[in-house]
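Please, structure for the following, as tokens.
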Amino acid sequence: MDFIINKFPKRVILFSEFFVLVVSIFFLFICFWFSIEYGYSLQKSGEGGATSNIPLYPFAYYTALCFLPALLYYLLKLKDLIRGGNND
């Protein structure tokens, strides 16, 4: 796709990068938020493993925590794009 996109005008390239970054940020934030909500619901219900009775909520919180680095990366990429264009 890169060889096709690079033939477009600079404004179209910047808009497509902006759009992809915003959609990625939105998707990662939704995943982060629902993981937090799921962890909270597991914590409230006290649900544990079927045979081990290990609480499941820390795993859901950890999953949410794992979305944060990618979310922060895309936020920084968006900030760079807004400030000065494509600075890869």
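Residues 10-45 form the longest helix (36 residues). The chain has one domain: 11-82.
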